[in-house]
Amino acid sequence: MFGTLSYKTQKNIIIVSFLLVPLALLLLFTYYPALKLVMFSFTDWDGYSPEKPWAGLANYREVFTNPDIFGVFAHNFAYFFMGIVQNIIAIYFAVILNSRLRGRNFFRLLLFLPYIMNAVAVAFMFGYVFDTTQGSLNLFLQSIGLSKLGETSWLGTAGLVNYSLASTGLWRFMGYNMVIYIAALQAIPRDMYEAAKIDGAGAMQTFWRITLPNMKPVIQLNLFLTVTGALEVFDLPFVLTKGGPAGASQTYVQRVMETAFAYNHYGLASAMSIILLMFVIIVVGLQQFVLSRGGSGK
Questions:
Q1: 270-292 as b/e, with b when 16 or more CB fall inside 10 Å?
Q2: Which CATH architecture has domain 65-118+158-296?
Q3: SS3 breakdown of the chain: % helix, strand, coil, rounded to 5?
Q4: What span, in angstroms and rounded, lies between the C-alpha atoms of 232 and 52?
Q5: Cα 118 to the center of its chain, rounded Å
Q6: Best CA proximity match to 260, nearest among 51, 57, 45
Q7: Do 167 and 82 meet the contact criterion of CB atoms below 8 Å apart?
Q8: Where exactly are the transmembrane stretches of this chain (predicted)?
Q9: What's phi and psi for 11, nearest 5 deg?
């Protein structure tokens, strides 16, 4: 059959044949569910009834006008803030461990190990760390003379709980970001550093003028992951606090899950999911615009 076809046509047929299976899987498991999610967001579906009453924009109005729903986004700010700190620390360790430091591979492995640990296991482990009476953090603070601070309820105080949970994410993901930054540093030509050294540039000048500009695409990638991760946090507060105390640590994704599976408001939960997607797109778009504008102004 292929003998009568030109080489270009045969090549195109083979390419399309190889693409059909992954494309079909992508349509079936990604775009079709996304389309159904959009459709459900305009209904008042309870999740199991065959009837799906049309609700129009009522679900979207409910999300934006109900502070108990949209206000939960404020709890995610702690994860965003700690994510920025996490990237700064990761760059610091990447620069140090990219040098000729003795035992650097051991320290790289040591800092990367938390990332490969199971998220639920990490959550339970830090549950013991943050325990008010017998937690290792409070016992350590008391042992160094900070008795007042050593009585803090890290997971039971509304103003602290989100930052305590976010610090767990910092501990777990910092090593992953560090490895990515080390790879970016190793891709920078050594000739640039040698030329800067000949010109008399100091360590800080080299870092600001050579290292950071060449790492910019990787920093953008990690910031993208940081923003999306901060907006989609679920596992840590779900395991450690169940959203407490009094909903102070409940994240937006937790509220979506609760709306769908606890209260059977699948239509409202679908609308909340679409809004989260739009919010991620807007925030990431603004981030890319600001970073690109900063780069073009040089």
A1: bbbbbbbeebbeebbeeeeeebe
A2: Orthogonal Bundle (1.10)
A3: 75, 0, 25
A4: 27
A5: 16
A6: 45
A7: yes
A8: 12-32, 77-97, 109-130, 170-188, 266-291
A9: -65, -45
What gap in Å lies between CA 285 and CA 185, rounded to an integer? 26
What's the whole-model pTM score? 0.84
Residue entry with tokens 């992954």: 22
Q: How far apart are CA 225 and CA 159, in angstroms?
A: 25
Instruction: Identify residue 294 by its one-letter amino acid code.
Output: G
Q: Which ranges in the chain are annotated with CATH 1.10.3720.10?
A: 65-118+158-296
HEC string for 195-249: HHHHCCCCHHHHHHHHHHHHHHHHHHHHHHHHHHHHHCCCHHHHHHCCCCCCCCC
C-alpha span between 273 and 280 (Å, rounded): 11
43 beta partners: 54
Q: Which residues of the chain have pLDDT under 70?
A: 1-3, 293-298
Q: Tell me the three state secondary structure of residue 54.
A: strand
pLDDT in tens, 8-53: 888 888 888 889 989 999 999 999 999 999 999 999 998 888 889 9
Which amino acid, residue 295? Answer: G
Overall size of the chain counted in residues: 298
